[in-house]
Amino acid sequence: MKWAVCLLAFFAIAASAADIGGTWKGSAETPNGTVERTFVFKVDGHKLTGETTSNMFGKSAIDGGSVDGDRISFTIKVNVQGNEGKVSYKGKVEGDTIHFKVEIAAAGTSLEMDARRVP
Q1: Considering the entire predicted model, what is its pTM?
Q2: Separation of alpha carbons 26 and 105, rounded Å
Q3: Model confidence at 17, in pLDDT bands (50, 70, 90)?
C-alpha cells in the first residue's frame, strides 16, 4: 500500500504544470532586426493566459494557452501593416528559461526564441 501511495505522489508531481506565472523577457533575431518580447503569464492548473508586448508588434493577448509538465503552448495575434496574423508559441521550461519555437503562419516561417524569468 505504501508503494502505491508513493507511486501516485510521484506521478502527481511529474504531471504537475511548470510554475511559469509572472514576467518573462525574450528576444530573437529576424531579417527585420531584433524582436524583443515581454510575456506576463497567468497559470490556473493547466490553463495559461496573460499578455505579451513586443517592440515591433505592440500588445497581444495570449489565446488557447496550456501548460503540460515542462511544455507550454499558446497563440497570439499580431498586426503587421494593417494585416492580422496568428503566431504560435511552443516552449520547454528549463528552470528560469523557456526555449520557444515560434511559428509565424502568415509568413510561412519559424524562429527560435529564449525567454528568461524577470526577478
Answers
A1: 0.82
A2: 20
A3: low
